[in-house]
UniProtKB/TrEMBL annotation:
Annotated NCBIfam families: FMN_nitrolo
Domain Luciferase-like: 20-388
GO MF, one example: monooxygenase activity
Organism this protein belongs to: Amycolatopsis japonica
Name used for this protein in its record: Luciferase-like domain-containing protein
Lineage: Bacteria, Bacillati, Actinomycetota, Actinomycetes, Pseudonocardiales
Length: 438
């Protein structure tokens, strides 16, 4: 029997995946946009909708990036609202373990699980810099190793809170004259957290909401193998996907876990066309819309840590090398290279080999895994990745908000269903049932 494909939809929000100039591009903050994408994903029988988190607007050279000026609404608020307009779709949100506290995150996620009837998921991330920390009263930042220590204890503490109510716990049983039964006082005393009391939210429909983890470092992979239900990976090519898949799955037995207990779902984009040639031409046009000349120069400046505004984005790479000792020009994006000189050397080699301009190089090195072709070809490719153990499924990131997922649901999902690798209807009510039921 073939493996079943898992699918999630990422709200494209504020990033360079979104094509702002397209006449079909809509609001990134109106609730109607979130509702449209969620309803489309549920119509396509997707496992869950995925929201990122932005704790500070990204900046470049001291100015807010133009893609962020629309703002970033609170993740849990949006998910709570979406629970009222969906019935089966899982609702996953990113919440930082660096600038939040276990008690409040446990309450927020447990509350969404109750509101949605068991469809909540939490994407656990760490936040790396003091720049983000300035938005919070304690400010500052944690070193990399300390972030993961905090994250691991943070998650363990949240799980303790979720488990502090027994499955059959009751409050206010008038018939039997019992005020409370099955509610344990929680006590957690560790290097990161020292808290005690009573958790205010009863045990949730899932018992434990789904936990997603997005780290790619060795520490992140180990953390996911030990604690996560889903890992949100950036490894999109078939070969790198297989390597990542095998590496993470081999770590599971050390924690008493089976390979099927952790799902690997890379991010992926898609472009559909009436013919393969048409799809590839559309994909090329979309990438040029996503990476405008100013965007290409800004991206290069992230690595060079120099003002490169005088350079032509359609010209060659600068002859000058990055400044490895300079403060980063860009804040709030993931890319902060440990060895910018090595990155520059690698990019120079790629640009020379393929005769690429700055803009063409940025398009080359920033491309997500893309499925490009006819609907049938895209369905075949997705199935190949899953059956080849390069992934368990994909988190799809459309380039348009809010209607970018419509064509995939209308044209690709039926072909996956025809192949017998994707559900024709939901068979369970909770997200855990969607992801792990046989």
């Amino acid at each position: 029997m073939p493996k079943q494909v898992k699918l999630a939809a990422h709200f494209p929000g504020v990033n360079n995946t979104t094509v702002w100039s397209d006449p079909h591009s809509g609001s990134q903050i109106d609730f109607s946009s979130f509702e449209h994408l969620a309803r489309t994903a549920e119509r396509g029988k997707f496992d869950f909708l995925f929201l990122a988190e932005g704790l500070r607007l990204r900046e470049h050279a001291g100015k807010i990036l133009d893609s962020d000026v629309v703002g970033r609404p609170n993740t849990t608020t949006v998910l709570a609202a979406l629970s009222a307009v969906t019935t089966r779709l899982g609702l996953a949100g990113t919440l930082s373990s660096t600038f939040n506290e276990p008690y409040e995150v446990a309450r927020q996620v447990a509350s969404i699980d109750h509101l949605s009837g068991g469809r909540a998921a939490w994407n656990v991330v760490t936040s790396p810099d003091a720049w983000t920390g300035r938005n919070f009263r304690r400010g500052g930042f944690l070193k990399r190793e300390d972030r993961y220590r905090r994250a691991e204890e943070f998650l363990a503490t949240v799980r303790e809170l979720w488990d502090s109510w027994a499955p059959d716990a009751v409050v206010g049983d008038k018939e039997n004259g019992v005020f409370a039964r099955g509610i344990e006082r929680f006590v957690h005393s560790g290097p990161q957290f020292d808290i005690r009391g009573e958790f205010t939210v009863p045990r949730t429909p899932q018992g434990q909401p789904i936990v997603i983890q997005a780290g790619d470092s060795d520490e992140g992979r180990e953390f996911a193998a030990k604690t996560a239900d889903v890992i949100f990976s950036r490894h999109g090519s078939l070969e790198s996907g297989k390597e990542f898949f095998a590496d993470v799955k081999r770590r599971l037995p050390a924690y008493g876990r089976e390979p099927g207990e952790l799902l690997i779902m890379p991010a992926a984009t898609f472009v559909l066309g009436d013919t393969e040639e048409d799809a590839h031409e559309q994909a090329r046009e979309i990438r040029y819309q996503q990476v405008r000349p100013a965007t290409a120069i800004q991206f290069l400046e992230q690595v060079w840590s120099r003002d490169l505004s005088a350079y032509d984005a359609d010209g060659p790479l600068p002859e000058i090398d990055p400044d490895p000792d300079a403060e980063p020009l860009t804040w709030g994006r993931v890319r902060h290279e440990k060895d910018p000189l090595a990155v520059a050397a690698k990019w120079r080699a790629i640009a020379e080999e393929k005769k690429l301009s700055i803009r063409e190089l940025v398009i080359e090195v920033t491309a997500r895994q893309q499925f490009v072709g006819t609907a049938r070809q895209v369905a075949e490719s997705i199935d190949e990745y899953v059956q080849s153990d390069a992934a368990d499924g994909f988190v799809l990131v459309p380039h348009l908000t809010p209607g970018g997922l419509d064509a995939f649901v209308d044209d690709v999902v039926p072909r996956l269903q025809e192949r017998g690798v994707f559900r024709t209807d939901y068979t369970g009510d909770t997200l855990r049932e969607h992801l792990f039921s046989r």
